[in-house]
Specification:
mainly beta; 10-stranded antiparallel sheet; 127 residues
């Protein structure tokens, strides 16, 4: 499954696994939100509410697509957060890990208040 995240600075494609939270996000799309930042992390609220999944983590790699259950938000860390102890992102709380962004360099340009639209990417079926 894929989600397209459209910011004023451009668009990103997130490759997401088939998890309960990812399915809920795909079902809710399209939707709009406003970006917030926390160190080198962009996050924004969604219309989805989810419970922590078994593989929820607080330490992730840059470019990981996460769902912060306590804020009903997508979290897109791309570097250090205010609570990181090294160069890796440390999320505020354990979050559901949904997938990855192949190229997340655009996130550095996102500013608080920027509009973000989340859309599903319809994948072509193979014959």
């Amino acid at each position: 499954m894929k989600l397209r995240l459209v910011f004023p600075q451009g668009a990103l494609t997130a490759e997401v696994a088939d998890t309960p939270t990812a399915r809920a996000l795909v079902a809710a799309a399209p939707f709009e939100s406003r970006a917030q930042t926390w160190g080198d992390e962009v996050y924004f609220t969604t219309p989805v509410s989810a419970k922590l999944e078994d593989d929820a983590r607080q330490m992730v790699e840059p470019g990981t697509v996460c769902f912060w259950t306590q804020g009903n938000a997508l979290a897109l860390p791309f570097g250090r957060t205010p609570i990181s102890s090294d160069e890796r992102p440390k999320l505020a709380n354990p979050c559901n890990v949904l997938g990855t962004l192949a190229d997340f360099s655009l996130l550095k340009k996102v500013r608080p208040g920027d509009r973000v639209t989340v859309e599903t990417v319809r994948e072509k079926r193979r014959a």
